[in-house]
Amino acid sequence: MTSVLIIGGGGMIGQKLASSYTESETVSLLDMAFPENINSNAKKILGSVTDTSMVETALSDLPNTIFYLASVVSGEAEANFSKGWDVNIHAFWSFLSQIRDQNLKSEGQYKPIIIFTSSIAVFGSPFPNKISDDFLTAPRTSYGAQKACCELMLNDFIRKGFCEGLAIRLPTICVRPGKPNLAASSFFSGIIREPLNGLKANLPVSTDVRHWHASPRSAVGFLRHAENLCWSDITFNSALNMPGLSCTVEEQIEALRSIAGNQVVKLIEQNPDEKIIEIVKGWPRNFETKIALDLGFSAESSFGDIIKIYIEDDLQSNVIN
Amino acid sequence: MTSVLIIGGGGMIGQKLASSYTESETVSLLDMAFPENINSNAKKILGSVTDTSMVETALSDLPNTIFYLASVVSGEAEANFSKGWDVNIHAFWSFLSQIRDQNLKSEGQYKPIIIFTSSIAVFGSPFPNKISDDFLTAPRTSYGAQKACCELMLNDFIRKGFCEGLAIRLPTICVRPGKPNLAASSFFSGIIREPLNGLKANLPVSTDVRHWHASPRSAVGFLRHAENLCWSDITFNSALNMPGLSCTVEEQIEALRSIAGNQVVKLIEQNPDEKIIEIVKGWPRNFETKIALDLGFSAESSFGDIIKIYIEDDLQSNVIN
Questions:
Q1: Omega prior to B171 cis, within 30 of 0
Q2: What value of ipTM does the predicted structure carry?
Q3: A276-319 tens-digit pLDDT
Q4: Total domain count for chain A?
């Protein structure tokens, strides 16, 4: 029987991932907080990944599959250096050590699948037009460095046979439901989500900015597909760029216009913000993800599809004309 | 006044590096053991890098330059998983944290130069004919993964302004003085050193094997040159492939023949060892090191020069005809 542990299960992707399992499957979630309306029969374990005993509790029923989504986000890791390294790598190391202990204690019988969410932040400029599967990981942020270290650690634990697994490097997830946040990337979702909810949205960069997107539904799809890979097919290092859609802000806006009309698009206001413009310049714009596509991972092929998924999965109100 | 700390100062390179400073310069060495005949006026601190208080002692007089050479070697890191990760990355992290504490305590006044010895083991096959400066780090050993993590950590500490520095990826150091060791690469030195000392040497691979070498004298040169770089010139990520010499075993042997004669070469015996053949297949063979050369790093251009350096710097007896 499938038993699944989602570390970071209280977050947006964690909740959607939990909901993707049937009631007959055993799903546990570990996180510091859970939203009140969390829609899941999952067992909820309240605690931090930095608390070894909480991780031990979460692992006590030896889950077959573990999704490790917990992370201090990019902006916070940059602002709070110690917290970023503590949560993003030292806690992950301690988690992997517990997996290894269980593997050795069971004489190799316990060998779970670990799917770790890495990020395209492991890459640093200068970039080619399309980033290939063997592009150098040279991060320019603490968050990117931490994710790259975790990839190296996971890869070594897999190589030594303590677990199976994969680190998947997610595109920017768009359209994120809920409220805008302080992430520099927040506007990529905001310029779609806010207008569809009848609210004004701020666009801090020019419309020719190109970026790499996938929907929350695709993110859950990546995680579920990764869980069911045939591990002997994986001959590359265990970190993989996920498919996505490369498009410009202008293409995002035109997709919104064709789905929701001119009046909705008029809610987007252009207010250039030099700080955000500078940050966004250092971000990857496009990828070729040959290995992932060959392994059967897939994402949206038009931004219109990404908007429709937001409307189907998350839009609560009914503002479309 | 220059004050220098060499962490791992009891090793072969550490000793040669210590001897490269004049008596008027303050040099401290931290290591678990020091050879009895160590030729240096340096202050010796006996202790492990895994002992936080010993590292604190070593840092107490705030050295301007710190060379971090301490490491569990490749074979041992592969055989003893926990020890490799503990010594090779957790101790390095703890060391960097102490540097950051001192930097913050001094309000940025204390900002030492940290030169870390990484390795070409950060690279994994498949390789191009020549590995470029922006080739992917995809290690296939625990040692390589640990070195790659340390590079990412050091880079982030440098980016945040807690220190200056560089990780330098050393070629295989050849000819190593002293006795053969259990490293799979030991024969690259052994087939030169043993015959020059009148002893039989074992060659476990075929003579067309190509590898990447630099002398111990070059290694010390890299470290001293790195110490004096102009940090504002460094715009790449802070890990850099060092120059070296790519040559085949046959070229090594022919260089030995032209320097020491046929009788000496006859002491080399070919005994193919499948295990070593397999390991060596996964090793880098050649590099272009454009950035390092542009920054003024240099190494030998012929294997004859590498042999002559061994004879000048290390050969004790006098067996050359």
A1: no
A2: 0.93
A3: 898 888 889 999 999 999 999 999 999 999 999 999 999 964 44
A4: 1
C-alpha A177: how far from its chain's center?
14
- The partner residue sitting opposite A138, judged by closest CB among B93, B153, B237, is B237
- Name the E strands within chain A: 3-7, 26-31, 43-46, 65-68, 113-119, 164-170, 172-173, 201-203, 210-214, 239-241, 245-248, 268-270
Has B21 been annotated as catalytic?
no
Collapse the DSSP code of B130 into the 3-class scheme (helix H, G, I; strand E, B; otherwise coil) and give the result.
Answer: coil
CA pair distance A50, B153, nearest whole angstrom: 19
| Beta bridge partner(s), residue A116 | A68, A167
Q: B39 lies in a domain?
A: yes
Q: Which of A173, A291, A152 is nearest to A229 (CA)?
A: A291
pLDDT digits (tens, 9 = 90+) for B283-293: 899 999 999 99
Q: Is A270 contained in some domain?
A: no
Q: Is residue A313 part of a domain?
A: no
User: Which of A85, A124, A149 lies at the smallest CB-CB distance from B237?
Assistant: A124
Question: In this structure, are residues B177 and B310 in contact, taking their beta carbons and an 8 Å threshold?
Answer: yes
- The DSSP letter of residue B262 is H
The residue to which tokens 């999965």 are assigned: A313
Query: In angstroms, rounded to a whole number, what is the distance separating the alpha carbons of residues A136 and B136?
Result: 4
- The pLDDT, as a whole number, for residue B1 is 66
**A147: amino acid identity, one letter:** K
Does the pLDDT at position B317 exceed 50?
Answer: no
Coil, helix or strand at residue A118: strand
Nearest beta carbon to residue A145 from set B124, B142, B155: B155
Closest C-alpha among A65, A30, A53, A101 to residue A229: A65
B153 to A145: CB separation less than 8 angstroms, yes or no: yes
CATH number at residue B166: 3.40.50.720
User: Domain span at residue A15?
Assistant: 3-172+214-241
Q: Across-strand partners of A212?
A: A246
A27: left (phi over 0), alpha (psi -120 to 50) or beta: beta
Q: Distances from the Cα of B76 to the Cαs of B72, B79, B144, in angstroms?
A: 6, 5, 12
The string of pLDDT tens digits covering residues B83-133 is: 999 999 999 999 999 999 999 999 999 999 999 999 999 999 889 999 999
- CA pair distance A113, A242, nearest whole angstrom: 18
Chain B residues whose C-beta sits inside 8 Å of any chain A C-beta: 81, 85, 90, 93, 100, 124, 134-140, 142, 145, 148-149, 152-153, 155-156, 159-160, 236-237
Q: Which two tokens stand for residue B39?
A: 């030729």
Q: Looking at per-residue confidence, does A240 or B184 come out higher?
A: A240
Cα(A84)–Cα(B153) distance, rounded to whole angstroms?
Answer: 12
> Considering Cα of A198, then A204, then A206, then A209, what sign does the dihedral take?
negative
Q: In this structure, are residues B127 and B79 in contact, taking their beta carbons and an 8 Å threshold?
A: no
Residue A296 lies in a domain: no
Whole-Å CA distances, A119 to A148, A180, A229, A241, A263? 9, 20, 20, 8, 35
Give the span between the Cα atoms of A104 and B121, in whole angstroms.
Answer: 27
Distances (CA, A) of A75 to A90, A219, B6, B20, B186: 18, 21, 36, 44, 47
Distance CA B87, CA B9 (A): 15
Q: How far is CA A318 from CA A107, A217, A262, A312, A315, in A?
A: 56, 20, 17, 11, 8
The residue count for chain A:
321
Note whether A223 and A67 are within 8 A (CB).
Answer: yes
| Helix (H) or strand (E) run with residue B74 in it | helix B74-79
